[in-house]
Amino acid sequence: PCRFTHPLMLGSGMHTTGIPHPAIVPHSGKQEMEHYDRNMKPQPEPKREKEAKKPTIKKPLNAFMLYMKEMRAKVIAECTLKESAAINQILGRRWHALSREEQAKYYELARKERQLHMQLYPGWSARDNY
Questions:
Q1: Is there a contact between 63 and 107 (Cβ–Cβ < 8 Å)?
Q2: Res. 35: pLDDT tops 90
Q3: Domain count, the chain
Q4: Is residue 68 part of a domain?
Q5: What is the CATH classification number for the domain harbouring 103?
Q6: Distances (CA, A) of 52 to 39, 43, 48
Q7: pLDDT at 11 over 50
Q8: Structural domain contains residue 22
Q9: What are the φ/ψ torsions at residue 9 (nearest 5 degrees)?
Q10: In this structure, is residue 25 part of a structural domain?
Q11: Which residues contact 92 (CB under 8 A, 6 or more apart)?
Q12: CA–CA separation, 66 and 43 (whole Å)
């Protein structure tokens, strides 16, 4: 089992001092925040609704992303953590702890993924999504 907790954070965004982080809790108080949430939901832009939605072609996964995809479930099973950021941090540490030979497997998978992506979408550019 995992013994990973961020040294500066306690549950639900509280700093070790017990003072909530300003980005998490507004200065004006909780009631005003609830009022804000109810009335300030973003309205969809009418222009976007009329446009036909093009399917987004994502760029191919790199070696580290392929490693994360494969190992995430294992880390979640080993740890009691559910926060994505903490899991990503553990995966990053484990990735850097791998030998070059162990990482090579994922670099080869990433190379194959890029080749397949180039065959499927020959004129594709990452800029197409922006």
A1: yes
A2: no
A3: 1
A4: yes
A5: 1.10.30.10
A6: 29, 19, 8
A7: no
A8: no
A9: -115, 140
A10: no
A11: 64
A12: 36
Q: Is 36 a member of any domain?
A: no
Nearest to 92, CA basis, from 64, 112, 52, 125: 64
Helix locations, the chain, DSSP H: 30-39, 46-50, 63-78, 84-97, 100-120
Q: Cα(43)–Cα(115) distance, rounded to whole angstroms?
A: 40
Per-residue tokens: 77: 């099973």
- Contact in structure between 88 and 68 (CB atoms under 8 Å): yes
- In Å, what is the CA distance from 123 to each residue of 53, 55, 78? 19, 15, 42
Alpha-carbon gap, residue 60 to 31, rounded angstroms = 44
Radius of gyration of the chain (CA): 21
Q: Average pLDDT, stretch 70-84?
A: 88
pTM: 0.54
Look at residue 55 in the predicted model and tell me its pLDDT.
77
